[in-house]
Amino acid sequence: MRMSVSAKNKLWGYLFILPSAVGIFIFYIIPFVMSLYYSLVTYGKFSGLNNYFELLGNSYFLLALKNTVLFTAIAIPLLLVTSFAIALFLNSFDKIASFFQSTLLIPMLIPTASVLFVWQIFLDENGIINNILNALNLSQINFYDSGFSMVVIILIFVWKNCGFCVILFTAGLSNMSKSVIESARLEGASSFKVVTKIIVPMMSPTTFFVFLMAIINSFKIFREIFLLFGDYPNENVYFLQNFINNNFYNLNYSQLSAASVILTIIIVAVLLVTFRIERKSNYLE
After folding, report:
1. How far apart are CA 212 and CA 218, in angstroms?
2. Torsion angle (degrees, nearest 10) of CA 263, 266, 268, 269
3. 224-253 pLDDT per residue, tens
4. pTM, 2 dp
5. Distance separating alpha carbons of residues 274 and 262, to the nearest angstrom
């Protein structure tokens, strides 16, 4: 019996998807199920939600949770606003836009260790910033063990991811209908109103996608924290990823697994809320 064309296309589609599906199943689904199992077990015995209750009473876990939420609440909006403003600026200069977009992508393409080596030149005790402060007879700043640590991590995150977000916003701006903007300008609308009342609402699908990518990348900031501050950073930049990593070193799989499940639930909850907001937006309706 001969297969129809549509059936053959479906079969080929499944065959092409199969390698990725197998990889996701082996490297993501199975480890998550194992983590869920270990989070309910203590020393080989079923303990129910006891590990979760212990986490909620663990001061280090609560500190890591607070810092993670604080970082996300500050870094994500700052990244979106900064990259959108740069994209708006570059959108007015077509001839030089591609050059600056390529330049802004460099921090993401360079290995993390090399990027942080450059930042250390500026931030170390004898770095460029502290040398300038000494020359001005001002007190030095300890960027690695003070409240400035969170500021440093936020700046590194925005600096590293800004170029990618700018390209996405620029692509969204280029696909917008120029006639709507030109009509608004002819009717006397100011630049501020054009941006806030026309461009921002029409850019909501792009903004939604950029927000999702920023959320995903924000949970990869552990590499920078680890290389700058080590296994046990100061309390200002002690994130959930640090808590999970330290429990892995201590072979505390129950606490490690419970913290991983909680982190997964937080990420999924944020994404679901974001999808719900996007579906209810006036633009899509």
Report:
1. 10
2. 170
3. 888 888 777 888 888 888 888 888 888 788
4. 0.81
5. 18
Place of tokens 């046990």: 232
Q: Which residues contact 254 (CB under 8 A, 6 or more apart)?
A: 38, 39, 41, 42, 43, 47, 51
How far, CA to CA in Å, does 196 sit from each of 192, 199, 203, 204, 264? Answer: 6, 6, 10, 12, 34
Q: Give the contacts of 35 (CB within 8 A, at least 6 positions apart).
A: 256, 257, 260, 261
E strands along the chain, which residues?
Answer: 41-42, 45-46
CATH code reported for the domain at 59-279: 1.10.3720.10
- Whether 130 shows a pLDDT value over 80: the answer reads yes
C-alpha span between 32 and 137 (Å, rounded)? 54
> How does residue 284 score in pLDDT terms, banded at 50, 70 and 90?
very low
**C-alpha span between 147 and 152 (Å, rounded):** 9
CB contact at 8 A, 154 and 160: no
User: Contact, 208 vs 274, CB < 8 A?
Assistant: yes
Q: Which amino acid is at 49?
A: L
What is the residue whose two structure tokens read 């212990």? Answer: 54
